[in-house]
Amino acid sequence: MIEQLLKDKRLRLTSFRKEVLQVFMDNDKAIAVSDIEDALNDFDRITLYRTIKSFIEKGLIHEIVMPGDVKKLALCPTECHHEAGAHEHSHVHFQCKKCKEIFCVDVPALPKISLPNYQIDEIEIQAHGFCAGCR
Amino acid sequence: MIEQLLKDKRLRLTSFRKEVLQVFMDNDKAIAVSDIEDALNDFDRITLYRTIKSFIEKGLIHEIVMPGDVKKLALCPTECHHEAGAHEHSHVHFQCKKCKEIFCVDVPALPKISLPNYQIDEIEIQAHGFCAGCR
DNA sequence: TCATATTTGCAATATTGTTGCATTTAAATA
DNA sequence: TATTTAAATGCAACAATATTGCAAATATGA
Asked: Taking CA atoms, which of A67, B24, B38, B128 is between 20 and 30 Å from A82?
């Protein structure tokens, strides 16, 4: 449960962190900072930004960015590794062209690709199409 | 050449647009708005933002975003299609972990992936590793 | 060359995120 | 349980990035 998740990531248990984490648990899709703000009734914006930053640093959540000023956040899968600069996922970031929502979809394995002149260590896949509800 | 590129995209030929487009031509990697600003000696910031926006709308350049507030711009390949919401690339966005530069690398074909419950129309791949110069 | 729609440049403003610092709080220790 | 201390919070100020409205300037088609 929520408290254990924070403990596992060595994050101090504060009521604000529990509230923020609850918002993530309540969503099955990636959410924007503004979605978190809407879900909280009374909060300090600076503290929220710092909370998000520490959640990211500890590998509790990850950031998803897409062209067009789309910045979202989503819970990491529990076995998620966090490395400097890049984030190792075994999932795909999918954006629905209709509802615009972004989902993290687990995949068994990512395809390997190789390029001349570039050594690829990690890849991230962003897919666009239609989700089950919008198809 | 530069003027033809603008004409092809039905963008009016203004000296400012030619200057901005020249900055893109001078670079083999993706550039940030600040890189354009540095390359221009005297300019209006608002006009630059609008120029970038119209270049993107007409499919002359495209936006590349990566986690960590990295937003860059790069010329589209000439056969580039532009669709609402997503941008069809047959190239990979590669970021070097050492020099941090982002390159658009053409690939013959992107791997096809499929997910249950999601209909994938386009995918974009973001790769991290080391470029030829930093390896 | 003229008419017109587009582009530019300026001012004001919005959005998003950060830093410094004093206060409060969680959790480790006695 | 009481005490200590390092981390987290809340406030003020600020920084970076981007947008809107509007008048003046300019590119292009007739």
From this structure: A67
CA B28 – CA B99 distance, rounded (Å): 14
Q: Is the minimum distance from the CB of A4 to strand C below 7 Å?
A: no
Question: For A7-40, b where at least 16 C-beta lie within 10 A, e where not — what string?
Answer: eebebeeeeebebbbebbeeeeebbeeebbeebe
Average pLDDT for chain B? 90
Structure tokens at A58: 């500890």
Domain of B111, CATH number, reads 1.10.10.10
Res A108: pLDDT: 82
* B97 φ, ψ (degrees, to nearest 5): -75, -20
A134, part of any domain? no
Report, in ranges, which bases of strand C sit under 7 Å from a protein C-beta: 6-12, 16-20, 25-27
Q: How many domains does chain A have?
A: 1
Give the structural domain span for A110.
2-129
Q: Would you call B99 helix, strand, or coil by DSSP?
A: coil
pLDDT digits (tens, 9 = 90+) for A41-53: 889 999 999 999 9
Strand C–CB A49 distance below 7 A: yes
Q: Kindly report, residue by residue over A32-85, the tens digit of the pLDDT.
A: 999 999 999 889 999 999 999 999 999 999 999 998 889 999 999 865 444 433
In a domain, B10, yes or no: yes
The answer to whether B76 faces chain A, any CB pair under 8 Å, is no
B59 inside domain? yes
Residue from the list A63, A115, A118 with its beta carbon closest to the beta carbon of B67: A63
Is residue B70 assigned to a domain? Answer: yes
**Which of A 27-46 have CB under 7 A of nucleic chain C?**
33-34, 45-46
Does B83 score more than 70 pLDDT? Answer: no
Identify the pLDDT of residue A85.
37
